[in-house]
Automatic annotation (TrEMBL):
Residues 62-320 form the Peptidase S8/S53 domain. It comes from the Bacteria. One of its GO terms (molecular function) is serine-type endopeptidase activity. GO terms for cellular component: plasma membrane. Residues 418-428 have a biased composition (Pro residues). The keyword Mitochondrion does not apply. One of its GO terms (biological process) is proteolysis. InterPro entries: Peptidase_S8/S53_dom, Peptidase_S8/S53_dom_sf, Peptidase_S8/S53_subtilisin, Peptidase_S8_Asp-AS, Peptidase_S8_His-AS, Peptidase_S8_Ser-AS, Peptidase_S8_subtilisin-rel, T7SS_pept_S8A_mycosin. Coiled coil: none annotated. Residues 1-24 form the signal peptide. This is Type VII secretion-associated serine protease mycosin. The chain crosses the membrane at residues 367-386.
Amino acid sequence: MKRFVALLALVPALLASVPPLADAAPPAGACTSAESAHSVIVPEPWAQQLFDPKRVWPRSTGSGVLVAVVDSGVDSDHPQLRAPGKVLPGRDFFYAGALPGNYDCVSHGTAVASIIAADPVAGVGFAGIAPGARILPVRITDRALNDGGEPQPIDPEAVGKGIRYAADQGAKVINLSLSGYRDLPAIRDAVRYAQSRDALIVAAAGNRQQDFAGSASFPAGYPGVLGVGSIDIAGARDDSSQIGGYVDVMAPGKSVVAATRAGGHDYWEGTSFATPFVAGTAALVRSAWPSLDAQQVAQRLTATAAVARGGAGSPAYGAGILDPYRAVTEGLSGAPAVLPAVAPQAVDVAAEREHAWWARTGSTAKLVAAALVLAILLAVLGTAVATRGRRRRWRAGRSAATPRTVAREEPPEEMFLFPPPAVERPQS
């Protein structure tokens, strides 16, 4: 009987050690060629080392902020995304019906969501920027999003509906890791609608610089949208990261680590994955500074960015490189303070003349003093020579020859870190 009672006492611990069953498996037939699982990447990625988000978390984790990921869905069963309430059911706008958006066939949306809000876990260096934020998955495609500039890589109507849905659900940050070079009314109008509901839109600048240099990029190019470019581990712009006036801020996007569907991690590249670093930081700011509206949050992110190689305000780097710690902690009121203009003062001619006279007088006095000191030294030396000459009656003198001795060469001294060998030790 005692053994039975002891076994019953162990049941709760055993149940707690069993991982929860997957409740975000793709609906039957939804994923025709789902991406397979990946292994876990243990070392701390370079982007997390650069931003060191743990410094910010005592002040803000993004708690209370809902971030919409308009993408390929989000696998809410990933070990770093499965905390209760972290990933909401969301909505699928790709398939007809009332399917949720908390599943993913290709990992793109899962990777984006994890950069924003993945929980830290023991033994894994990767974690999201704002682990306290909640994710609203809005599924608008069943394949990896292509921000290579195709005219309509996905259905713009689905994107527009997804943005409007996110705004209606109360998302204060909307991540759009997609881009194109056409101004599509369905997306433009949806962006305006979300902005009217105080949602900050963060969008990828695009990865088509070599073929579309200087071209437009949407939705990053819409007014009020925060456009994000990509840098590498050296802080240089990724060669393919788009250049233009719509680039507002830069973030890591070259070989960055993020989660994949069905567990594990992978390395990702492109402005699509630089964008969630900015969206996650926006969640940190909105949580720490709840009185700021969306545009004040955007201004804060750009005002606190670190100056990049292109200088502040360049079309390649925008305001510079994102700095989550400064964005949260600096005591700005939403926008950088404007310094008052410097009023030129009238020159006092009389005072300037007096200053110049004293400067010249001081230089002259220094030269006279140096000459006097030199004359005194020469006089003392002359007196000593004359006295010695009179004593010797001005006869020449010769110093006594020193005896010649042959110096015996000695070996250089040695210092031993350890006691010398026995044959070299002094005999006692």
